[in-house]
């Protein structure tokens, strides 16, 4: 059963053991198929594919990324579960890449030079960039004649002024080794910034906005006139607000203490800060906000503490970014927690009346189409805006490939 409209843009998010994909129609209005291939190279690999309103799951060996890409294409062109007759119907591919360093200030059409520059960024994101690159190489092998675009999580934050992105360390670390604040979740923040402006009916280049991307990873972003001017995650992916399993801001002095006094190795400390801290570390129960909220409700004191800390750290960033921006027009919540937890939004906004934010508790429980959760009288708008990183990648892919085609014509 094939779809009537021709889907042409394939969006790829390739991780070390996962491959996520979505297929968009040219007008970017419809996602005709999406899938997740997980546990690549491990036991129990799974291929999930959703199209025509139903989901198909198969557990099958997927020993490497090449097999994963082949499995994806098999499903996309399958006469039953597929949405295209032939892979040649895909006219552009968009890839997510985590780290573009200071080399990539915006999305780019992929060529050999872009790949070489992306390889130079690997030391800055050794866990994330290599699988992103594998995805690009595989997609180019399977679709050699199709233009491909890469969209970077860091690129949106490249507009931060020097005083916001340079650390107060010896300057050579910045000038010679590129050690600085980069920020992440930029693709989400860019999408939400534009969408929030549209929902407010105001031009994006006239707004001071703080975006709270609250998911498993957390980014608080200060945006002035559509440009990111400060962001809570820094050089690696630890800093800012506590996350599902990551600590967020801690005094770097504790690393030396843990190493020298408690005998922990650097590897142990890194694993602890990355995998055993945050909501999980404090609650001792879970990295999942839903579970921590449920257990706090049931009387778990450490879960309650984790929630208080999460709200407090977020509120401190909102306050400091409102000061950095010199005012605030809109406070926007997005991602899993930001979009779905009214109680966490209420906790965070509790003391923000001084910023002109007054929450409407009914609207906060069930935000309407305009996303507003603040009262009509609230001087500053508070909103919930669902993020869509894949759509942002598809938008960039369409824009850049059309531009390249027009230039070649
Ligand atoms: P990722 O960073 O992996 O993309 P998500 O944006 O999907 O993460 O967010 C995952 C987080 O959202 C988890 O902590 C999850 O518990 C939380 N979440 C999802 N739905 C709800 C909900 N209804 N209430 C509270 N938290 C929720």
From TrEMBL:
Mg(2+). Can also accept Mn(2+). The record marks 185, 246 as: Transition state stabilizer. It comes from the Bacteria. Its cofactor is Mg(2+); Mn(2+). Pathway: Metabolic intermediate biosynthesis; acetyl-CoA biosynthesis; acetyl-CoA from acetate: step 1/2. It is an enzyme of class 2 (transferase). GO terms for biological process: acetate metabolic process; acetyl-CoA biosynthetic process. GO terms for cellular component: cytoplasm. Its main location: cytoplasm. Pfam families: Acetate_kinase. Its EC number is 2.7.2.1. The active site is at 153 (proton donor/acceptor). ATP binds at residues 20, 213-217, 288-290, 336-340. It catalyses: acetate + ATP = acetyl phosphate + ADP. Mg(2+) binds at residues 13, 389. Substrate binds at residue 96. Keywords: ATP-binding, Cytoplasm, Kinase, Magnesium, Metal-binding, Nucleotide-binding, Transferase. GO terms for molecular function: acetate kinase activity; ATP binding; magnesium ion binding. SUPFAM superfamilies: Actin-like ATPase domain. The keyword Membrane does not apply. It is found in: Cytoplasm. Belongs to the acetokinase family. Homodimer. Catalyzes the formation of acetyl phosphate from acetate and ATP. Can also catalyze the reverse reaction. NCBIfam families: ackA. This is Acetate kinase. The lineage of its organism: Bacteria, Pseudomonadati, Pseudomonadota, Alphaproteobacteria, Hyphomicrobiales. The gene is ackA.
